Amino acid sequence: MRRRIAVLVAATTTLVLVAFLIPLAVLVRTVAFDRAVNTATTEAQALTSVVGTVDRSTLELSVQRANAQGRFPLTVFLRDGTVLGAEAERTPAVRLAARGRSLTVDTDSGVAVLVSVGDSSGGQAVIRSEVGERELMRGVHRAWLLLAGLGVVLLGLSVLVADRLARSLVRPTRELSEVSHRLANGELDARARVDSPREMRDVATALNHLAGRIRELLAAEREYVADLSHRLRTPLMSLRLDAEALRDRQESERITEHVDTLHREVTRIIEQAGRRSSARSAPSGCDAVAVVSERVEFWSVLAEDTEREMRVDLAPGPLRVALEASELSDCVDALLGNVFAHTEDGVGFDVRLFAHEGFVRLVVSDDGAGFGESVASGEPLSRGASGSGSTGIGLDIVRRAADESGGSVTLGTGERGGARVTVDFGVPEG
């Protein structure tokens, strides 16, 4: 924007200067021309009294003196054909002036001023003054240079003023952009200054109001999550007591472990909600091989119970991704949970993990019916969208995890005709 304003002002100033300086340059040329011609005419007219009153010898001396002292060469054409002073031809213009008509004509070397005057013998003589091109342009080039210099100075000043003005407009805009990015990164204390121009001040005020409203909404969300945790605590405690009361010791320990896992997940969700109000920090990352191996081992028990063939191909680790271990674990659970939820018992699936073009790629594909026509529009990745009666949140969790790491998610059809989800996770910097 700053550069565009400077270019616009420079173009406008250039047009104004051209419209002003070109006529002024022409005027300077005209004034110099008229000045030289008038001076030559004055010098020629100074001899008119001499030509009409003195004899020829005196006239010749007077013409020589005038040529020695004047700027322009003078020639006197007498009626009898005698030519005194500077050499010059008796041109048709001279013959016309000999009939009693004074005039100014253009020549190859400049301008000739012809003055008709009566001589001492009663005839008609012509006084000719020659003005060269150099005399006609005396001082013109210098004036043109001064005008050009003035134009350059004015253009530079206009661009400088425009740049200062543009800076005063661009600076508040950049500050607003910086504040908006800080808010997007979770710095809810960021506020825009309101000491800018009126229009920018209105935008800054609206942005500050929006930041305050976001802060209020997040505070309300954290309170709601805290309330939810208290509401869940009593049922979880009841489940734990019921599990501990079971007579089968192994069954009691198994159910108790599941209740503890559920309690930890609820606690982690509460902590994550509480961190949303603070600035985001770059995740430390985790070893994807270790996390995926642990979750595959967990789901292998259920796969065995449902007679599913689990084909696992994990690259040798470590393969670090820019994602916390808990978030990657949720992502893997969402993918494998969809396989168990949306395919019949006995349907096998593949889990592959490997490095691919600067990313860590996780591929989960099954031998079921696939996504169908919805995969073309990407509908399964939309939050709450599901064509199989589910909540539609599972794949959205996967998408958000991939986006947070700087990767992406692709849906497709597997080699055996079932659904295939390809997730590319970004790797930590450095």
Automatic annotation (TrEMBL):
Q: What would be one Gene Ontology cellular-component term for the protein?
A: plasma membrane
Which InterPro entries is this protein grouped with? Answer: 2C_sensor_his_kinase (IPR050980), HAMP_dom (IPR003660), HATPase_C_sf (IPR036890), HATPase_dom (IPR003594), His_kinase_dom (IPR005467), HisK_dim/P_dom (IPR003661), HisK_dim/P_sf (IPR036097), Sig_transdc_His_kin-like_C (IPR004358)
Spell out the reaction equation it catalyses: ATP + protein L-histidine = ADP + protein N-phospho-L-histidine
Q: Which domain of life is it from?
A: Bacteria
> Where is the Histidine kinase domain positioned along the sequence?
227-429
What is the first-listed, main subcellular location in coarse terms? membrane
Its EC number is 2.7.13.3
Enzyme class, spelled out: transferase
User: Any idea which UniProt keywords this protein has?
Assistant: ATP-binding, Cell membrane, Hydrolase, Kinase, Magnesium, Manganese, Membrane, Nucleotide-binding, Phosphoprotein, Protein phosphatase, Stress response, Transferase, Transmembrane, Transmembrane helix, Two-component regulatory system, Virulence
List where in the cell it is found.
Answer: Cell membrane
Mind telling me which residue stretches traverse the membrane in this protein?
7-28, 143-162
Membrane topology is: Multi-pass membrane protein
Provide a Gene Ontology MF annotation, just one. Answer: ATP binding
Q: Extract the signal peptide range.
A: none
Q: What is this protein called?
A: Signal transduction histidine-protein kinase/phosphatase MprB
Q: Tell me what organism the protein belongs to.
A: Actinopolyspora mortivallis
**What high-level taxonomic lineage is stated for the organism?**
Bacteria, Bacillati, Actinomycetota, Actinomycetes, Actinopolysporales
